[in-house]
């Protein structure tokens, strides 16, 4: 690797540190938890310190993409700051990890303590990030409960109704009634379940469960609501695709925010949801054929 290439690589690390510093300091402005604020400020100071270390070798300042900073901050507001912080740090760790051995070899003469510097950065920041205790993640179990129940139960119901009713309007009507009732039932059950437990608010748990369930219901009903009445097969296909996308998106979020295996959770939820949908689909056909009820 040429000296010019090495300098560009170092400047990339330097720019990453500066960008993260700006992101953390902006996120702190809307974080309510005092301990999380303090932890985020410590991480920001770590980034600033690392930036200054890299600057000693580049002998120059670097510009930061402020649009990217604003984008990360916006996502932190929408998805939670824990998710964005871990996503940002994981991306940088993977990038540095994949090139660390080569970098250490190429930069040893230029920066004698390169190995110590990079290991300190990754380990110290990981330790600090693990101290963050965002409220949204406390209730991740409640969201999983609402989402999982909606995907399994409601996907099965829609699949069964598709051939039993063969009408997008009727399916939408039945889905809304069932979905709203099930949302209230799930929320109240979660409230009673958490009421006698310590560490979580039963009201917040029920709200997270109910919200996850209802949002999933609405997303799965959209194909039936928007397509013509006789396009129920197409609506079913789109709904099943939406199920896979929802499972993938949610499990990706949880896997990053809580540092767990994405593949295992995604496979598990997908197999269960689609198996129930297939069984309900067959039941709907059998009911329509043997009972002989036409709607």
Question: What summary fits the major beta sheet?
Answer: none
- Strand percentage, roughly? under 5%
Per DSSP, the total helix count is 11
Q: Termini, distance in Å?
A: 72 Å
H-E string? HHHHHHHHHHH
The figure for the number of domains is 2
Number of strands: 0
Helix percentage: over 70%
- Assign the structural class, choosing from mainly alpha, mainly beta, alpha/beta, alpha+beta, or little secondary structure: mainly alpha
Average pLDDT across residues? 75
* Low-pLDDT ranges: none
Assembly form of the protein? single chain
What Rg do the Cα atoms give? 25 Å
Question: Per the principal axes of the C-alpha atoms, what is the gross shape?
Answer: elongated
Describe this structure in words.
The chain is an all-alpha fold and 295 residues long. It has two domains: 3-132, Ferritin (Up-down Bundle), CATH 1.20.1260; 139-291, no CATH class. The protein has eleven helices and no strands. α2 packs antiparallel against α5 (114-129).
